[in-house]
Design a protein that fits this description.
It is built from three helices and seven strands, in the order H-E-E-H-E-E-E-E-H-E. With 158 residues, the protein is an alpha/beta fold. The strands form two sheets. Strands 1-2-5-4-3 form a five-stranded mixed sheet, covered by helices on one side. The chain is globular, with a radius of gyration of 16 Å.
Length: 158
């Protein structure tokens, strides 16, 4: 598989400069990731899936991250190619803020395996996924007002 820097350059060449930003990971795993522009994330995801060399046809994991000091939330997707037998490629999509309207594009129409996992992120972090085919609570009851995996959980801030 080609290096993440090359994948980023290919995305930028197709979708414009700044469509993807390399996020280094200094931990021992050194699993760097690509931060995608929210307004282009679905199109970039389809490109990553459909590109003959990458063929990232499987999303194994979707998780949320809360960055209170930075004032935003993130959704992280781990992608693999079952066809070419490589991966992971890790992509991220960032919300504009942590407020009640925190939103990100759904990638469930690109990778069906993301559908249930985006619902879980919605339920536990409060990120609304626009374009999601069935966005409703999964673990918590419908009128529950908080998001248990946010770092300020239990302090009255939703």
């Amino acid at each position: 598989m080609e290096p993440l820097e090359r994948i980023r350059d290919r995305i930028d060449a197709r979708f414009g400069s700044g469509a993807a930003t390399l996020v280094p990971n200094p931990s021992p795993s050194a699993q760097h990731s690509l931060l995608l522009r929210s307004d282009q994330a679905a199109a970039i995801a389809a490109f990553l899936r459909d590109d003959a060399e990458l063929c990232l046809d499987y999303c194994s994991n979707v998780s949320g991250l809360d960055w209170p000091a930075a004032g935003h939330l993130e959704v992280v997707y781990h992608l693999y190619s079952m066809t070419c037998r490589h991966g992971p490629v890790i992509i991220r999509v960032r919300t504009a803020d942590r407020g009640p309207g925190a939103a990100a594009p759904s990638l469930a129409l690109v990778w069906r395996s993301a559908e249930l996992q985006e619902r879980e992120v919605f339920d536990l972090f409060g990120i609304t996924f626009w374009g999601h085919p069935d966005l409703r609570r999964l673990l918590m009851w419908d009128d529950y007002a908080e998001y248990p995996l946010r770092k300020d959980f239990g302090k009255g801030a939703a």
